[in-house]
Amino acid sequence: MGKLLLATNNQGKVREYTLLLRDAPFTLTTLAQEGLKAIVDEAGATMEENATIKAKAYAALSQLSTLADDSGLEVEALGGEPGVHSARYAGEKSSDRERIEYLLAKLDGVPLEERGARFRCVIAIAIPSGQVELCEGKCEGVIAREPNGELGFGYDPIYNLPNLGKTLAELPLELKNEISHRGKAARLALPILKRLAMGKKA
Predict the structure, then answer these.
(1) Could you confirm whether 23 is annotated as catalytic?
(2) Mean predicted confidence (pLDDT) in 71-93
(3) Residues 17 and 176: beta-carbon distance below 8 Å
(4) Which of 40, 48, 90, 145 meets the CB 3.0–4.6 Å disulfide criterion with 98?
């Protein structure tokens, strides 16, 4: 069984993908496990571009099949912000808490019925020769007035799911993976990975 490189240093993503891709016909490995310290500049204008840039770069560096994603929060009242800038919304080295506080401040006074948002995740799967395939998942929700929950990471504590009456940070990982943008994208990625594994064996 070949290796699949998860091109992220985000341990929250590693935990989620380890569970989401448990049926993939690959042994999962990470940048740290492969000793890859190079930082790839995510200079794309879209999530699709950023995921593709990362997947192709790390596939070339590692000579392994590589999965990279770019995900972000799009808030309707902010014209789709923070979008591709989600991880750097409050500054280049801002913490999750600082980004949440910054976003909530921008939404101060906005009523709940106007705080609709969506999480998007674009996965790119690349092989060392440069071929890339993309898939995308979305999760609709509402930005809460204050953080709730200790689970998850990023904007999860303020991402409320009206059908459940909870934020993503209040959900156990198994349930979060069923409904999250990353979970939906990963389920679309599995058939791609299975085809890729069959092709490698042929």
Answers:
(1) no
(2) 92
(3) no
(4) 90
